[in-house]
Amino acid sequence: MNIDNYLENIDPNDKNHANIVNKTSSYTRRSFIHSSGLGLMAIGLPQFGCSNKNKTIEKSTENIWLPISKKKIRLGIVGNGASKFGIQFGFQNHPNIEIVAVSDLFPERCLEMAKACKCSNTYSSLEELLKDRSIDAVFLATDAASHFRHSIDVLNHGKHLAVAVPAVLGSLEDAEILFAKVKSSGLTYMMFETSIFREDLYSMRQIYQAGGFGKLIYSEGEYFHYGTKSISSYNNWRVGLPPQFYPTHSNAYYVGVTDNTFTEVSCLGVPSLNDEIKSTNNIYKNPFGTEIALFKTSEGGSARMAVSWDTPGDSGERGRVRGQKGSFYEKYDGFEKSLPSLLRPALPPNMPLGSHGGSHANLIEEFINSILQNRKPLIDIAMALNLTVPGIVAHQSAMKNGELLKIPQYKIA
After folding, report:
1. Which of 87, 120, 153, 265 has its CA 20 to 30 A from that of 41?
2. What is the pTM of this model?
3. 400 lies in which domain range?
4. Has residue 100 been placed in a domain?
5. Number of folded domains in the chain?
6. In-domain check, residue 136
7. Distance of CA 400 to CAs 128, 268, 274, Å?
8. Is the dihedral of CA 369, 373, 377, 380 positive or negative?
9. d(CA 93, CA 348)
10. How far is CA 227 from the centre of its chain?
């Protein structure tokens, strides 16, 4: 097929062009992973939730990426802090993206990002970058405490928005304001929750959507990130952070699988031995280094979602689900014999999968395609808040000795 001829005749709004299965091509997901030097171990898959033994996740199905448009989205990237997400997500590798501006408050960080992204246009702040009318969209990799304020600023300037997690930090009022703002703006908003495109969770999602689990009776999600000292953070926002203020990696193992929500929560927190996590030693007045939340789900099941900073051992995100018709723990066990394809969406050739279980590239592809096709992204504002807000309420519950509390619901008709 001649790609140029193909591009001249396609409709960017036709979703079928985004991912094409072609059995005659020699370019496969397997060959791509090997040619990129990335195996399952390289992309950091967890020991459970997905493993080499998992026979339900297809490894050799041929899945071909074809561009849906010649258009390039002109992107600005803001933030190059400790996690280097402005660089590490890999926007600079996508053929439908032109990085036209970068910004960080610290000049040396800004120059580092400009070099990595091959972008000569730098700004000293988000406020300055937003004055650039040539920018179509912005990726916010700024400190979590600023996500709400920065998101509002981007939307006020009429630009599409991708933002690292969480959507807001600890404020139910901010969540309501952001929800209303995104809905009224008509712009694309997507939160980059990495667990959604982990191989295990994406498989669970495909199986659930095909009816392979039926109603989920029980779900588990875990985010363990042990450290004796917090990761360096702007204005020390990570120091003493309530675990359930950063809940999206674990909550995704229900919300991201089903598109459903948590309706009530009882959460228990355990006072920490870590000096940073003392109510007198952090801005949050938070005493807990581990918070375990038990949620009631909108389909009548239950979910246990754990976030922990202070328990030694393995770190990472992982989960499992059990339903009336099947379960997923390293593999699918259930009644459904004809499963859908569990392969993650196709990606541009030579685009690295990225970290967090190889999720980065798929998040970028979903964000860019949602703009090109003028459709809502998978992790839109409703899902973003349904992932974030339950953790805010869970921490409130923990501070009230596990009191059962109602959770606000977000839905776009």
Report:
1. 87
2. 0.86
3. 195-342+381-406
4. no
5. 1
6. no
7. 43, 9, 21
8. positive
9. 9
10. 22
